[in-house]
Amino acid sequence: MSAATRYAACGITIVGLANLLLWPWLDPSARSGVLVAGVVALSVQTVAFALLLRYRGALTGFLAVWAGGTLVRMSVLAVVAVFVVRGGGGGGASMLLALAGFFFGLLLLEPLFFRPGAPDTP
C-alpha cells in the first residue's frame, strides 16, 4: 500500500470520526455542510500529498508543488467563503469552519506518512 493510500485511509478515518463526534450538536443543514467540507478537504489534501510524494526527489518540483498546494487550499477556502456569503444558507458557516479545520488537521497528518528518504511503499 502506498503512502498516499495510507494517508487517504487515515484522513477518511479522521474526517469520519470528526463528523460522528459533531453530529449530535449540529442541525441538518450544518451536518450537510460539514460532510461536504470533509469530502472537499479529503480530495484536495490527498491529491496535494500524492503530488508531494511524486516530486520529493527534485527540490524545485517539490517546492513548486508545495507552494501550489498551499495556493489551492487558500483558493478553495476563498471560493467556499464567497459561496457562503452569497448563498446565506444555514450550513454555510459550518462548512467554512469545518473546511478550514479539516485542512489544518489533515495537513498536520502529512509528516506521519511523508519520510523524505523512504520509498513510497513499505
Structural class: mainly alpha
Unreliable spans:
none
Number of strands: 0
> Which percent range fits the helix content?
over 70%
Fraction in beta strands: under 5%
For the CA atoms, what is the radius of gyration? 16 Å
Biggest sheet details: none
Q: What is the molecular shape?
A: flat
What is the averaged pLDDT score?
88
| Count of separate DSSP helical elements | 4
Task: Describe this protein with a few key phrases.
flat
Describe this structure in words.
The chain is mostly helical and 122 residues long. The chain has one domain. Helix content is 80%, strand content 0%. It has four helices and no strands. The protein has helices at 3-22, 28-54, 59-87, 92-113. The mean pLDDT is 88.
Outline of the structure:
The chain has 4 helices and no strands.
Architecture blueprint of SSEs:
Blueprint: H1 3-22, H2 28-54, H3 59-87, H4 92-113
Helix pairs in contact: 1-2, 1-4, 2-3, 2-4, 3-4
